[in-house]
Amino acid sequence: MAKNEGQVAIKKYANRRLYNTGTSTYVTLEDLAEMVKKGEDFTVQDAKSGDDITHSVLTQIIFEQESKTGNTLLPISFLRQLITYYGDQMQMVVPSFLEHSMRAFTEQQTQMREQVTRAFGETPLTKNLQLPMQMVEDQVRRNTEMFQQAMQMFSPFKAPATNAKESRKAEAKDIDELKEQLRALQSKLDSL
């Protein structure tokens, strides 16, 4: 199959093997994860039916990444909240909201890296992790508030006081989980 503006076609066969038509080689889910990290665009097609199964394969990569490492990227509270939107009136809004949020987070991450580099030089976070942690916490707080406001626009009949209390608890838990992940990262950096 011909490439579509740089997009590579990956064919998935019945034996679960993945074939990269761009390189004419068999690949693994780990190879596809690396392609994503490098920004390479691809689609995954069922070799027999021709159906686009990119979504399910990317979901499988996330599942394997989450189970393979001890560091999970998706907090349980987020997964629970996400599951509640299936079959809900919000199901149509959530994908575009998450896509917008991830794009904004990526832009802010780039800005944060530039600020950390300016503040601490070219070394990876040096000894002081307090400023980057504060910046991440602030960003998590802003994103959480933005998400809550968007959800309240579409859920006007829920009691705001209860939602606010639950949201603060979930936000505090997410921040604690993020702090723990940053501490683990700092420990790894210190050991290097």
UniProtKB/TrEMBL annotation:
Boundaries of every PHA accumulation regulator DNA-binding N-terminal domain copy: 10-68
Sections of the chain in a coiled coil: 161-188
Domain PHB accumulation regulatory: 74-113
Coiled coil recorded as keyword: yes
Segments crossing the lipid bilayer: none
Highest taxon, organism lineage: Bacteria
Biological process terms in GO annotation: regulation of DNA-templated transcription
Thylakoid listed as a keyword: no
Keywords tagged on the record: Coiled coil
Protein name listed in UniProt: Polyhydroxyalkanoate synthesis repressor PhaR
Species of provenance: Rhizobium metallidurans
